[in-house]
Structure formats: C-alpha cells, structure tokens
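seq as requested:
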Amino acid sequence: MKNINVKKNIIVFLTLAILITSCSLDGKKALNYNQKLVDKEDALVPDIKKTEAAVADFYTAKKFDSIAIAGRRMEQIIDNKIAEIQNEPAPDVKDAAEFKKAFINYFSYFKNVYSEYKNFGSAISDSDRSVVFARIQTLVAQKPQVLTDIKTIQAKFAKDNRFKVEN
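struct tokens:
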C-alpha cells in the first residue's frame, strides 16, 4: 500500500515538474521572441532620427527630390525588417501569431509614413504636395494610437506567456 502511494506521489511530482518546466520554457521562448522584435524596432531608431533630421533640412531647402530619396530609403529599410519578421516563424507559444502580425502592422505603419515622404518629394506641383502633406498629417495623427495598440498587444502577449515587459 505504501509502495503505491509513493509511486503516486512520484508521478504527481514528475507531472508537476514537467508542467512547470514547460511553462517556464514557453515563457522564455515568448520573452526571447518579444526581445527579438523589439531589437528590430530599436535597430531602426538611428535611421529614423537621421532621416527625420535630413528631411527637415531638405524641406527647408526645397530639395524635394532628396525627400523622395530619403523616403524610398526608409521604405526599403523597413520593408527588409518586415520581411525578416515574416520569414521567421513565430514560436509555439500563446498568441505568438497575433503578436507577430501586430508587429508587422506596426512596422507597416512606419513604412506607410515614409512612402508618403517619397510621394511628397516626387509630387510634381505644390498642390500635389499639399494633398500628400495632408495624408502625412493624417498618418502622424494616428501615431499615438498605433503606439498604444502595439503596447497593448505586447502587454497581453507578456501576460499570457508570464513574462514582464520592460518599459
């Protein structure tokens, strides 16, 4: 009788140990995936800062062709990051596919902004540039919501996979 109880206790213990290890590994996979996507975002920051400063100077100097080139360059840089995310499988953890899609949408938002910079610089007339400028303003107005959306899905992904997001 004691032998059976010992065996039951060992089985319960081993089952719990496997579950805890599995949950811990999933959390680690999710954390690593989150960090990998954040690293891709962080890698864009120097290019964004450089481009924004250059575009401001180009605008002042009315070098619209240079704005188009800067926009095209950033479009390509961001497009490469999107391709990296798309080509890498999401880990097998809770909500990873949704998190991946959200990050692709997040990067696509910024790509759209730079596509409009390209369009602005390529516009033939001042009236055409005014139309594109209005689209840029609309996109810029959406930025706070875009940032809130990605932070919300990131927080949900972290909570569902039991890890903390650094702010």
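The chain has four helices and no strands.
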